[in-house]
From TrEMBL:
Gene encoding the protein: proQ
Official protein name in the record: RNA chaperone ProQ
Biased composition (Basic and acidic residues): 148-162
Residue stretches of biased makeup (Basic residues): 131-147
TM region positions: none
Species assigned in the record: Photobacterium galatheae
SUPFAM superfamilies linked: FinO-like (SSF48657)
Compartments, as annotated in UniProt: Cytoplasm
Annotated PANTHER family: RNA CHAPERONE PROQ
Any Gene Ontology CC annotation: cytosol
Region (Disordered): 120-162
Length: 212
């Protein structure tokens, strides 16, 4: 039953073909250059194998031949080999140059990715630092009540209105307990006086709460 289980990814396929053709493939160390057209040979030899499909073999070969250890093995003077490890001719110079270029590009991408990750990590650590500074801000807020108390002292110099001064249209201050608010008298009904605050709101207060 185990022999019929389908392989699920390229890593497993590479390990499997390295087991089946140890003179050609390897899972560690420098890999040898493969014969041109080896995919057809591989597909034919494993055509009746239920564990792998042609699509999986093609993907696994692409991953195998683009790995750094394989590209390192594609060098001047090296010979290509078939599935049984037989030499199939020396590498051409253009193939060597192509492998070297692919290797450099792959390494450059890895370096760039690592640089981006390091920059992102540094930025994340930098963003975390201001949060500690914000914790100090409540100290500054404690100063505000002190200044507000000082601002309220001049208001205490106001005096209560006389009955003659309570009339519509007069600008007054309404004693709100914790301070006086500027307002204008808009209506008088005995002791109840309707005033309009500077913010547009109206309210009814007793005449004794009005100040000049």
């Amino acid at each position: 039953m185990e022999n019929s289980e389908k392989l699920t990814n390229s890593k497993e396929v590479i390990a499997y073909i390295a087991e089946q053709f140890p003179k050609c493939f390897t899972v560690e160390g420098e890999a040898k250059p493969l014969k041109i057209g080896i995919f057809q040979d591989l597909a034919e030899r494993l055509s009746d194998d239920p564990k792998v499909s042609k699509t999986q073999l093609r993907a696994a070969l692409r991953q195998y031949t683009s790995s750094w250890r394989y590209l390192h093995g594609v060098k001047a003077g090296a010979s290509r080999i078939d599935l049984d490890g037989n030499e199939c001719g020396v590498l051409e110079q253009e193939h060597v140059e192509h492998a070297q270029k692919a290797l450099e590009e792959s390494k450059a991408k890895v370096r760039a990715r690592r640089k981006e990750q390091a920059a992102a990590k540094a930025a994340a650590e930098g963003d975390a630092k201001p949060k500690k500074v914000r914790a100090k801000s409540p100290k500054a807020r404690n100063v505000k009540p002190k200044t507000s108390k000082l601002d309220k002292k001049p208001v205490e110099t106001t005096r209560a209105l006389s009955s003659d001064e309570v009339k519509v249209g007069k600008d007054v201050s309404v004693n709100m307990g914790n301070g006086n608010m500027p307002a204008t008298i808009v209506e008088i009904n005995k002791d109840d006086v309707r005033v309009r605050l500077t913010n547009g709101l109206t309210m009814v207060v007793k005449a004794e709460h009005l100040r000049s």
